[in-house]
Amino acid sequence: MVERRKLLFTDKQLTELTVLYEKGLNDPEIAKELGVKREAVKYRRKKLGLLRSRLFTDQQLIDLHGEGLNDREMAEKLGASEGVVFYHRKRLGLEANRHRTLGRTFT
Q1: Is residue 2 part of a domain?
Q2: Could you give the CA distance from residue 30 to residue 39 in angstroms, rounded to a whole number?
Q3: What integer pLDDT is reported at residue 100 of this predicted model?
Q4: Cβ(75)–Cβ(28) under 8 Å?
Q5: Of 4, 11, 56, 61, most Cβ neighbours within 10 A?
Q6: What is the pLDDT of residues 8-26, one digit of tens each?
Q7: Mind telling me which SUPFAM superfamilies this protein's record contains (predicted)?
């Protein structure tokens, strides 16, 4: 039987998690600051009754799209999945930047 590791946080980490959350950081950013996995932050945040912060703002997506990045590139920069970026790009009415492939720009 596979045993799941407990997602233990010190009192100091719990306090810091809450402070970082209140500053507006999302789970990946908090995880990086605390030196733990994103899943651990998600689990503990839920246990504390804290809602999930958005991974990125609409303006961040618009700015990256304006730089010509495709969905995969934007997802990497924003710490999100391609599907999430695709959904929000469509919601904002932004066309796909298909001219960028494999890191090369075609004119």
Answers
A1: no
A2: 11
A3: 57
A4: no
A5: 61
A6: 788 899 999 999 988 888 8
A7: Sigma3 and sigma4 domains of RNA polymerase sigma factors
